[in-house]
Amino acid sequence: MSSQPVGVHVGSGLTEDGEVADDGVLARAAEVDASAVQVFLADPQGWKAPKPRPDAEELRAADLTVVVHAPYVLNVASTNNRIRIPSRKLLGQHAAASAAIGAAGMVVHGGHVTGGDDPAAGFDNWRKLFERQADDGGFPVPVLVENTAGGEKAMARELEALARLWDAVGEFGAGFVLDTCHAWAAGWDLATVVDDVRAITGRIDLVHLNDSRDEAGSMRDRHAPLGEGQIPVDLLLEVARTAGCPVVLETPGDGPSHAAEIAMVRRALG
Ligand SMILES: [Zn+2]
C-alpha cells in the first residue's frame, strides 16, 4: 500500500467560541478515513491572529499529516506597505500556530502585484520575507507556496513566473503546493505538470487534488469533486501518484462523498 497520506480540507473544526466542534478536525478525519487533513487556524478571509487551539495536543499526537492553510487575504508579494507588512505579520503568527499543532507545513498562495507594478518587485518581496525570517532562525514550519488560478501579474500562476519566484525563494527551502484545479485553470499540461514543476522547484510537497468546473485555461477557480468536473479523472489520479507526496482534497462535498473520493485516490495510489 502507498505511504502517501490522503485526506481533505476540514476548515477550522472549531465552534465560534473556539471550542472543538462536534465535527472537529479529528472527528472529520475519522469519518472520511483520512490520513491527512488541511485546517484553517483563523478566519481565512480575515486578519485576526490565530488563537491557541484546545485540540493542539491531540493534533500533535495524532497519526495524521496536518497542514495549515494560511488566510487568503495574505499577499506577501504586494508593493503596498499596508498589505505586505500585515501579511508578513499574519504569516509569522500562523507559522508559530502551525508549529503548535505539529503541522507538517503551512500553505500560502503566491500572491500578486497590481497596476503598474513590476512583477520583479513582487518576487523581491518574497525573497525579503524569507531573508528577514532567516535572521530569526527561519520559519518554524515549512512554508509551502501554492500555484494560483488567475490574476494578472501573479507570482505563481504561470510556470515562467514560478521560475522567477523560485530564483527568489528556493535557496531558503520554500516548499511547493500543486493545486490541480489552479494548474488546469492556468493552462498547465497536467500530463507533464509534475515533471514541469519539479524541473523548476525540485520538489512538490503537497497536492491539492481538485477537479475543475471550467475548461482548461479558463483562469477560473471553481473546484469540483473528482470526476464531476472538466479534468479527466485518470489525469488527476496520475498527478497524485507521480507527485509522491501527501494529497489533500479541496472539493465540495460531505462526509460520505469525501470518503468515497479518498478511497478512490488510495486505490489509484496502490
Ligand atoms: Zn488549493
Automatic annotation (TrEMBL):
Keywords: DNA damage, DNA repair, Endonuclease, Hydrolase, Metal-binding, Nuclease, Zinc. The lineage of its organism: Bacteria, Bacillati, Actinomycetota, Actinomycetes, Geodermatophilales. Residues 26-261 form the Xylose isomerase-like TIM barrel domain. The keyword Metal-binding applies. GO terms for biological process: base-excision repair. Its cofactor is Zn(2+). This is Endonuclease IV. Belongs to the AP endonuclease 2 family. It comes from the Bacteria. PROSITE patterns: AP_NUCLEASE_F2_3, AP_NUCLEASE_F2_4. Pfam families: AP_endonuc_2. Transmembrane segments: none annotated. It comes from Klenkia marina. InterPro entries: AP_endonuc_2, AP_endonuc_F2_Zn_BS, Xyl_isomerase-like_sf, Xyl_isomerase-like_TIM-brl. GO terms for molecular function: DNA binding; DNA-(apurinic or apyrimidinic site) endonuclease activity; phosphoric diester hydrolase activity; zinc ion binding.
